[in-house]
Design a protein that fits this description.
This protein has helices at about 1-35, 35-40, 110-115, and strands at about 45-55, 55-65, 70-75, 80-85, 90-95, 100-105, 135-140, 145-155, 160-165, 170-180, 185-195, 200-210, 215-225. With about 260 residues, the chain is an alpha+beta fold. Strands 6-5-4-3-2-1-13-12-11-10-9-8-7 form a 13-stranded antiparallel β-sheet, covered by helices on one side. The termini are far apart.
Amino acid sequence: MRLRNLCIALLCLLPGATAAQTADEILAKIIAARGGRDKLRAVRSERISGTISFGDVSGPFVVELKRPLKMHMQLTVQNQTMVRVYDGQSGWANNPFVGKVNPEAMTEDELKNITEESDFDGPLLDYKTKGNQVELAGKDKVNDKNVWRIKLTNKNGDVRFYLFDVDSSLLLKWEGKRKYEGQELPVESYFTDYREVGGLKFAFAIDSGSSATDVNQRIRIDKIDLNPNINDAEFAKPTTPPQPGSPPPNPASQPPAKPPA
């Protein structure tokens, strides 16, 4: 009887251990599909340029990233220029689309967002050392493709879901929430048009919104430069960008997300 009870107890422990192991096995495939851990870590800086659209209005953007956790983003829509800068500890931003022309220190919520965005390895690579927890949340569907649903809980307790194609192991969808001006907003992002740059795979098309039927932000990447020489001065507090005086577009009232690595 004692032996039987011991076997039952051991069986009760197996599902959790198996799930954790399976999640790590899937992550290994995901990292390999991107190009491999060594190539990802070898990237010291990135420059991403393209076009961002909010509804019917669009304009160019450039995002520069550098280790450790430095980011400079600039976009211009209808002659209005937004700049967001993070030096790894402090951040500044202006948002002329809501009347904030001069760069101001970021709020606590904005700093949490840009800290995640500036990590171009992403939260899944070396997730344990970053204080994140990962678990496999089963299978799902994105359009007609079977996907693995990976649940990530970061060190702040925020939950994100990453949906990876079962066949290619590439990210197809991201689900989460963003805090903006005191509100917590649901966000979904869809990743398509994967291309290889320097032996790594990147999505060159990213559509985001509150749901699949309410996409209000579209990113189309033109070029990705790996390991460009970026001066650290780019990540200092920015000066006020020129604003040639055009009415701000309403769709841009919400700050854009950086294209994920």
